[in-house]
Amino acid sequence: MCFPQFATSNINEKTEDNQKTQKILSNYFSKYLLVGKANFQFLFWNMYDAKLVSENGKYPSNKFALILKYNREFKKDSVVDETINQLKKQKTFNTDEIGKVKLLLNKAFRDIKKNNTFIGIRNDNEAIFYFENEKVLETKNIEFIKLFFDIWLRKDSQNPKFTNKLLGLSKG
User: What phi and psi, each to the nearest 5 degrees, are found at residue 38?
Assistant: First the structure.
Protein backbone atom coordinates (compact mmCIF):
# COMPACT_ATOMS: atom_id res chain seq x y z
CA MET A 1 0.00 0.00 0.00
CA CYS A 2 1.32 3.43 -0.90
CA PHE A 3 0.85 6.31 1.51
CA PRO A 4 0.69 9.93 0.38
CA GLN A 5 3.67 12.19 0.73
CA PHE A 6 4.14 13.02 4.39
CA ALA A 7 7.22 15.11 5.22
CA THR A 8 9.10 11.98 6.25
CA SER A 9 12.16 13.99 7.17
CA ASN A 10 10.09 15.41 10.02
CA ILE A 11 8.07 12.30 10.83
CA ASN A 12 10.33 9.27 10.96
CA GLU A 13 8.39 7.19 13.46
CA LYS A 14 7.71 3.85 11.81
CA THR A 15 5.41 2.54 14.49
CA GLU A 16 2.19 0.66 13.93
CA ASP A 17 0.27 3.63 15.39
CA ASN A 18 1.93 6.01 12.92
CA GLN A 19 1.00 3.69 10.04
CA LYS A 20 -2.62 3.69 11.24
CA THR A 21 -2.56 7.49 11.41
CA GLN A 22 -1.13 7.63 7.88
CA LYS A 23 -3.87 5.31 6.65
CA ILE A 24 -6.57 7.53 8.18
CA LEU A 25 -5.02 10.67 6.68
CA SER A 26 -4.71 9.04 3.26
CA ASN A 27 -8.51 8.67 3.23
CA TYR A 28 -8.86 12.48 3.24
CA PHE A 29 -5.70 13.84 1.60
CA SER A 30 -4.10 13.04 -1.77
CA LYS A 31 -0.89 14.12 -0.05
CA TYR A 32 -0.17 15.76 3.27
CA LEU A 33 2.80 17.70 4.49
CA LEU A 34 3.84 18.78 7.94
CA VAL A 35 2.96 22.40 8.71
CA GLY A 36 4.48 22.29 12.19
CA LYS A 37 4.77 20.35 15.41
CA ALA A 38 4.88 21.30 19.06
CA ASN A 39 4.94 19.80 22.52
CA PHE A 40 2.43 21.11 25.06
CA GLN A 41 3.56 21.25 28.67
CA PHE A 42 1.65 22.60 31.63
CA LEU A 43 3.80 23.52 34.60
CA PHE A 44 6.08 20.47 34.80
CA TRP A 45 3.72 17.98 33.10
CA ASN A 46 4.37 16.86 29.53
CA MET A 47 0.78 16.78 28.24
CA TYR A 48 0.89 15.93 24.51
CA ASP A 49 2.72 16.26 21.23
CA ALA A 50 0.83 17.94 18.40
CA LYS A 51 1.32 17.93 14.64
CA LEU A 52 -0.51 19.94 12.03
CA VAL A 53 -0.60 18.73 8.43
CA SER A 54 -2.19 20.05 5.25
CA GLU A 55 -2.03 19.19 1.56
CA ASN A 56 0.40 22.01 0.78
CA GLY A 57 2.22 22.13 4.14
CA LYS A 58 0.74 25.56 4.91
CA TYR A 59 -1.86 27.07 7.18
CA PRO A 60 -4.42 28.63 6.89
CA SER A 61 -6.16 25.98 4.87
CA ASN A 62 -9.71 24.65 4.84
CA LYS A 63 -8.32 21.12 4.71
CA PHE A 64 -5.93 20.09 7.48
CA ALA A 65 -5.45 17.59 10.28
CA LEU A 66 -4.44 18.13 13.88
CA ILE A 67 -2.84 15.07 15.46
CA LEU A 68 -2.41 14.85 19.23
CA LYS A 69 -0.35 12.09 20.86
CA TYR A 70 -0.92 12.12 24.58
CA ASN A 71 2.04 11.77 26.94
CA ARG A 72 0.03 11.05 30.08
CA GLU A 73 -3.36 9.74 31.22
CA PHE A 74 -6.46 11.93 31.39
CA LYS A 75 -10.03 11.22 32.41
CA LYS A 76 -12.58 11.93 29.69
CA ASP A 77 -14.56 14.30 31.93
CA SER A 78 -11.50 16.45 32.62
CA VAL A 79 -10.66 16.66 28.89
CA VAL A 80 -14.24 17.62 28.03
CA ASP A 81 -14.33 20.22 30.83
CA GLU A 82 -10.96 21.74 29.86
CA THR A 83 -11.99 21.85 26.19
CA ILE A 84 -15.17 23.70 27.16
CA ASN A 85 -13.08 26.14 29.23
CA GLN A 86 -10.90 26.78 26.16
CA LEU A 87 -13.97 27.30 23.96
CA LYS A 88 -15.39 29.78 26.50
CA LYS A 89 -12.26 31.92 26.02
CA GLN A 90 -13.43 32.47 22.45
CA LYS A 91 -17.20 32.82 22.86
CA THR A 92 -19.88 33.32 25.50
CA PHE A 93 -22.22 30.32 25.49
CA ASN A 94 -25.72 30.02 26.88
CA THR A 95 -26.76 26.89 28.80
CA ASP A 96 -28.34 25.24 25.75
CA GLU A 97 -25.23 25.84 23.62
CA ILE A 98 -22.95 24.41 26.32
CA GLY A 99 -25.14 21.30 26.45
CA LYS A 100 -24.81 20.81 22.68
CA VAL A 101 -21.05 21.37 22.77
CA LYS A 102 -20.68 18.94 25.68
CA LEU A 103 -22.64 16.32 23.73
CA LEU A 104 -20.24 16.65 20.76
CA LEU A 105 -17.16 16.54 22.98
CA ASN A 106 -18.43 13.48 24.84
CA LYS A 107 -18.65 11.71 21.49
CA ALA A 108 -15.15 12.85 20.48
CA PHE A 109 -13.21 11.97 23.63
CA ARG A 110 -12.57 8.87 25.72
CA ASP A 111 -10.50 8.21 28.82
CA ILE A 112 -6.96 8.80 27.58
CA LYS A 113 -3.95 6.60 28.22
CA LYS A 114 -0.34 7.51 27.55
CA ASN A 115 0.46 7.27 23.80
CA ASN A 116 -3.20 7.44 22.70
CA THR A 117 -3.75 9.40 19.51
CA PHE A 118 -6.52 11.85 18.66
CA ILE A 119 -6.92 13.11 15.09
CA GLY A 120 -9.14 16.03 14.12
CA ILE A 121 -9.56 16.55 10.39
CA ARG A 122 -11.08 19.68 8.91
CA ASN A 123 -12.34 19.03 5.41
CA ASP A 124 -13.86 22.33 4.25
CA ASN A 125 -17.22 22.58 6.05
CA GLU A 126 -17.03 19.36 8.03
CA ALA A 127 -14.81 17.84 10.68
CA ILE A 128 -14.07 14.21 11.34
CA PHE A 129 -12.55 13.09 14.62
CA TYR A 130 -10.71 9.86 15.37
CA PHE A 131 -9.63 8.51 18.72
CA GLU A 132 -7.23 5.58 18.68
CA ASN A 133 -7.96 5.02 14.97
CA GLU A 134 -11.73 4.80 15.48
CA LYS A 135 -13.99 7.41 13.93
CA VAL A 136 -15.79 8.93 16.91
CA LEU A 137 -17.48 12.04 15.50
CA GLU A 138 -18.42 13.71 12.24
CA THR A 139 -19.93 17.19 12.32
CA LYS A 140 -20.88 19.98 9.95
CA ASN A 141 -21.39 22.46 12.77
CA ILE A 142 -19.12 25.18 11.35
CA GLU A 143 -19.09 27.30 14.51
CA PHE A 144 -18.03 24.31 16.63
CA ILE A 145 -15.40 23.29 14.06
CA LYS A 146 -13.83 26.75 13.99
CA LEU A 147 -13.88 27.20 17.76
CA PHE A 148 -12.52 23.71 18.41
CA PHE A 149 -9.51 23.98 16.11
CA ASP A 150 -8.90 27.57 17.15
CA ILE A 151 -8.05 26.31 20.64
CA TRP A 152 -4.67 25.48 19.10
CA LEU A 153 -4.54 27.54 15.90
CA ARG A 154 -5.79 31.06 16.65
CA LYS A 155 -3.31 33.93 16.89
CA ASP A 156 -4.37 34.82 20.46
CA SER A 157 -4.28 31.24 21.76
CA GLN A 158 -3.52 30.55 25.41
CA ASN A 159 0.01 29.48 24.45
CA PRO A 160 1.33 31.59 21.52
CA LYS A 161 4.76 29.87 21.47
CA PHE A 162 3.08 26.48 21.08
CA THR A 163 0.74 27.81 18.37
CA ASN A 164 3.60 29.41 16.43
CA LYS A 165 5.50 26.10 16.41
CA LEU A 166 2.37 24.23 15.35
CA LEU A 167 1.76 26.73 12.54
CA GLY A 168 5.37 26.37 11.40
CA LEU A 169 6.12 30.00 12.25
CA SER A 170 8.92 29.20 14.69
CA LYS A 171 11.27 26.31 15.40
CA GLY A 172 12.72 24.84 18.53
Answer: -155, 155
- Residue 66, H or E segment: strand 63-70
Position 94 pLDDT exceeds 90: yes
Residue 42 has what pLDDT? Answer: 87
CA-CA distance, 162 to 66, in Å (whole number)? 13
Instruction: Check residue 154 and report its DSSP letter.
Output: S
SS3 of 1-54: CCCCCCCCCCCCCCCHHHHHHHHHHHCCCCCCEEEEEEEEEECCEEEEEEEEEE
pLDDT value of position 5: 37
Side-chain-facing half-sphere of 146: CA atoms under 13 Å: 6
Angle in degrees, CA 35, 21, 60, rounded to 5: 25
Q: How crowded is the C-beta side of 8, counted as CA atoms within 13 Å?
A: 7
C-alpha pair distances (Å), 146 with each of 80, 91, 100, 120, 143: 17, 11, 15, 12, 5
